[in-house]
Known about the structure:
Blueprint: H1 10-21, H2 25-38, E1 43-49, E2 55-60, H3 67-72, H4 100-106, E3 109-115, E4 122-128, E5 131-138, E6 143-149, H5 156-161, H6 165-182, E7 187-192, E8 195-200, H7 205-213, E9 221-227, E10 231-238, E11 250-254, E12 257-258, H8 262-271, E13 284-290, E14 295-296, E15 307-308, H9 311-330, E16 335-336, E17 339-340, H10 350-356, H11 386-389, E18 394-395, H12 402-405, E19 424-428, E20 432-437, E21 440-445, H13 446-464, E22 468-479, H14 482-490, H15 492-497, E23 501-504, E24 509-516, H16 524-541, H17 546-559, H18 568-579, E25 594-597, H19 599-605
Parallel strand pairs: 1-7, 11-13
Antiparallel strand pairs: 1-2, 2-6, 3-4, 3-6, 4-5, 7-8, 9-10, 10-13, 11-12, 14-15, 16-17, 18-22, 19-20, 20-21, 21-25, 22-24, 23-24
The structure holds adenosine-5'-diphosphate (ADP) and magnesium ion.
Amino acid sequence: MSDIIRLLPESIANQIAAGEVVQRPASAVKELLENSLDAGADKIQLFIRDAGTTFIQVKDNGKGMSETDARMCWERHATSKIKKADDLFKLTTFGFRGEALASIAAVSQVEMKSRREEDSLGTELKIEAGEVLHHEPINCPVGTTITVKNLFFNIPARRNFLKSTSIETRHIYDEFNRVALANPGIEFTFFINDNETLKLQKTDLQNRITDVLGKKGQGELLELHETTDILKITGFVGSPEYAKRIRGDQFLFANGRFIKEPYFNHAIQTAFQGLIPEDNFPYYVIFFEIEPSKIDVNVHPTKTEVKFEDSKAIYSILRSVIKKSLGSYTLTPQISDNQIFSFETSSLPESEVISKFNSPNVNSKYNPFSTDIQPNKRQDWGKLLEPFKKPESNFYDGGKKSDEIYPKPENQLFMLEEKLLFDGIFQIAGGYIICSKNNELILVNQQAASERVLYDQFINQFEHHNIAVQTLLFPRMVEFNAADFNLVYSLIDEIKYLGFDISSFGKNTFIINGVPAINDKADPQITLEGLIDNFRQNEQKLQLDKKENLARSMARNAAMSATGALTLMEMELLLSQLFQSPQPNFLPNGKPVFIKISQQGLSEMFGK
Ligand code: ADP
Ligand code: MG
């Protein structure tokens, strides 16, 4: 039998390598941006169309390439950044594998124009699926422009694997934001479908953080600065008010490279312990500068994992640096509304500091079911309908005339078929209700029950377009970062149907004139932020349609703090609503709402 082993043709080898380097449009964006940084550019423009699937272009004013290099750079393992194995331990560039351009070219149609300062003519190249179709001198500015068209055009399986436009765009934002945060001294412009969505002027880190991530609530950015033998730590952490229920804006960079390192996240999280609720996540943009020989960036092709020689020491340095900055923040006398808190920093017990600064924006007592209904007066149930009957309330119905949109009675919310009777109800601390009906014992998770009921209501409202809007006395301006702004903008009609009277108001800003009456006690900005955080999480995990996702997100959001004490009447109402739900047993995500134990179950528990 003849020999059967052979070397793969270059084109197939490149396609296989591309699988690792270019997983989605965002990976190509990352590689191109990093190449521009490595080329010393101080002005970089990113253009994408259709979430990068049909068009990605990165234009820089970096050092450009010679005619030969312009051809060479598309070969696999072609790099100007390392020469010998030793160089791997002294990396000062993002790239070093020489794989990115070859991989991108293997799975798309690429065009490049590049010129060096010293050359009068530049070079233009066109490559398709790794094959050079065109290579000519051309007039062009100094720097490099690379255009990637129809990514994965020759690998349909990959193309079909891509997620929705909004998810892929989000991934691109993530990469762009990381690069922009780590390089405040560089001007970036980001165009989506030919619209300029973000222009970042050269600035300092603090301003770059607000330019990229948006101003958030009342929080402050606290500066970190520490130099030790092992590393230098700089950057900012958001004061405790910034913390969110969903892990969002957490950025850690090692020598300018974005890294994911749960161990260091943990160090930061523990530094915040006691200052923010357990399940909240701090906000930070932190940079390590460390001698390149002390880290190994070579563990993963897409390079967000990095190995550190002294990770234990770094853990404790990091934690104490953050504690220090938080300490000086929380103990600084605060002046607000002509009121001065001043206290001795040395004698204040830790617990007091904590309670004073324990996330003031979160109203942990808020309970969407609390009303002041008198017990046992049937007619008072009508009070629950009040927010929906108030004359100042509006009903958003996609812009129909007001007399057409007043809800028909059968569409009204909180419609209870009947109030259910229970043999007994009481609440135990921590947000559980125990009740009994038909000789069965039912143990209810209060928060889940609220979420279920709210979810049903939001779904109902979407179907009937009869959501009640509570008009705000003072309209609220809410500023988002560009990514969040775009997401909210793309969902604006659905968000209106949820009960927000919202419209865009200039750059990255919305004006909120009204909020869902069901949830009108909560801060609109926090509600909206929580809504989009939940939305995004659902979007990445599940394939939900927009409305389903928004109803779930809003219900989760509004029910979040529904763990407070309830009156008997409120419990009866909640349980009645729950047990009239089309599906009371489970939340839409499949988690149980209550546990039921029958008489037989009880006797079995006692071994009968
Ligand atoms: P790596 O970045 O790992 O070296 P790439 O495939 O990304 O590999 O790029 C190959 C080479 O092409 C780089 O080493 C660099 O010399 C050159 N190059 C790529 N992009 C640019 C750019 N925007 N400006 C100048 N040179 C570039
Ligand atoms: Mg590169």
